[in-house]
Amino acid sequence: MSDAVTDRISEFLAERLSAQPQRASVTFLGVEPIEVLRFVTGDDLVYVTVGCARHPMSEPTDIHADPVRGPRAELVVRMHASAPLPGLHRRMATVAAAPAVEGLILATDALVDLSEPMWDGAAATAMVLEDDDLGDLTLPAPMDPVRFLRAVPITANEAAWVRLKGADALREAWREARIDVMAPDRAAAKL
Q1: Residues 90-95: contacts with CB within 8 Å, 24+ apart?
Q2: Percent share of the chain, pLDDT over 70
Q3: Which of 106, 105, 9 is nearest to 54 (CA)?
Q4: Considering the entire predicted model, what is its pTM?
Q5: In what side-by-side order are the strands of the sheet with 22-28?
Q6: Cβ atoms of residues 64 and 115 within 8 Å
Q7: Distance between CA 139 and CA 145 in Å, rounded?
């Protein structure tokens, strides 16, 4: 069943983004491979994980986790194609594997601290999650749909702000300062 889920995700993405992606596969010991697809859409790049949603996410202490029902998600990073982003696919795959490895539940407004740059040389060392424009992918019943969560790169100071004030306060600071979160070399919000 897990291959059927990943196949449906790949088809859904190719249709929604009207492009064929470049693929990178990352393997972690004891976990099925995570693919990161890279789509070029005009002047932008869209990176999407495929593999996180193979199985429903569950709390690591839940010894009776349902193997069919439960939340499923994939990560999306949208950036302008103005600079190379070396290593981004590996960092995304690491976070996408975290539900299977550590029991992390990926959800809207979640803060994920990487403790390292999101790509080599990046100022961003964390990500805040929000619903992506791709929408949800419906799977056959009784499986829950796959949610596509946009992972917005943020700096350590912005991550501290999210912990203190919440994700919506950070988004408001971005709007007020007219910060383009898709710019790889953007300045951090002054908080």
Answers
A1: 90/26, 91/116, 91/117, 91/118, 91/119, 92/36, 92/47, 92/49, 92/151, 93/24, 93/26, 93/28, 93/34, 93/35, 93/36, 93/49, 93/51, 94/26, 94/28, 95/49, 95/127, 95/151
A2: 99
A3: 9
A4: 0.94
A5: 22-28, 31-41, 44-50, 72-80, 146-154, 126-137, 111-113
A6: no
A7: 5
CA distance 5 to 51: 8
* pLDDT at residue 1 is higher than 60: no
CB 82 within 8 A of CB 9: no
Retrieve residue 38's tokens: 């890279």
Tens digits of residue pLDDT in 122-137: 999 999 999 999 999 9
Pairing state between β 111-113 and 31-41: unpaired
Structure tokens that stand for 3 in this block:
């291959």
Residue length, the chain?
Answer: 191
